[in-house]
Amino acid sequence: MEELANEHIEHAEHAHHAVHAGDNFMIKVSATIAVLAVLAAVVASLETIETGHAISEKNEAVLMQARASDEWAYYQAKSIKQNMYAIAAGTNAERATDYLKQAARYEAQTREIQKKAEELEHRRDEKLAASNKHEEKHHGLTLAATLVHIGIAIATIAIITKGQKWPWYVAIALGVVGAGKAAISYLA
Question: Which phi and psi angles does 47 have, rounded to 5°?
C-alpha cells in the first residue's frame, strides 16, 4: 500500500529529469504518466468505495435474513399453539368455544408475523441486489484501474527507449479506455 502511496513521487521525479534534460517529448510523456497516475488513484479510490458498499449491503442482507429467521421461528411457535388449541377444542366440548377463540387469536398473530417475516425477506433481497450492483461496479473499476496502470508502465517504455512514440500513444489509448471503463462502471 505504501508503494502505491509513493508512486506519484516517482512520476514527479521522471518529470523533473525530463524538464532538466530539455526534451519536450519526454516532458509530454512524463506529464502523461503523472495524469495517468492521478487517474489510477481516483479509480482505485472509487473501487475501494464500491467494495465497502458491497460489503455493507451484504452485511445488512445477513442481518435481515437473521431477523426474518427469528420471525419465522416465532411464527412456528404461534402456529403450534394455534394447532394445539384447535385440537383441544375437538377433544373437550365444554371448553371448545374458549379453545377456538384462542386458536383464532393465534391465527391472527401468525398472519402478522408471517407478513413481517416476508417483508424482512424482501428487504434482504433488496440488499443482496444492491450488493451485487456494487460488486459489478467494483469489477469494472478494477479493470479500469488495471488498464490505466498498464498505460503507466507502457508510457515508461517511451522514456526508457529515449523517444519512441508508439509506447506513449498506446499509454494514452489505455488511459482513455481505462477512464471510459471507469466512468461507465461507476455511473451504471
Answer: -60, -45
Phi, psi of 162 (to 5 degrees): 55, 55
- Given a cut of 80, whether residue 11 has pLDDT beyond it is no
Closest Cα partner for 61 from 135, 132, 123, 136? 123
Contacts of 175 (CB under 8 A, 6+ apart): 32, 35, 36, 39, 147, 148, 151
- Cα separation, 110 vs 103, whole angstroms: 10
98: cell is: 374458549
Residue with cell 502511496: 5
Contacts of 83 (CB under 8 A, 6+ apart): 103
Distant-in-sequence, close-in-space partners of 124: CB < 8 Å, separation ≥ 6: 61, 64, 65, 68
* pLDDT at res. 21: 63
Q: What is the rounded CA–CA span in Å between residue 140 and residue 136?
A: 6
pLDDT 10s digits, 140-149: 999 999 999 9
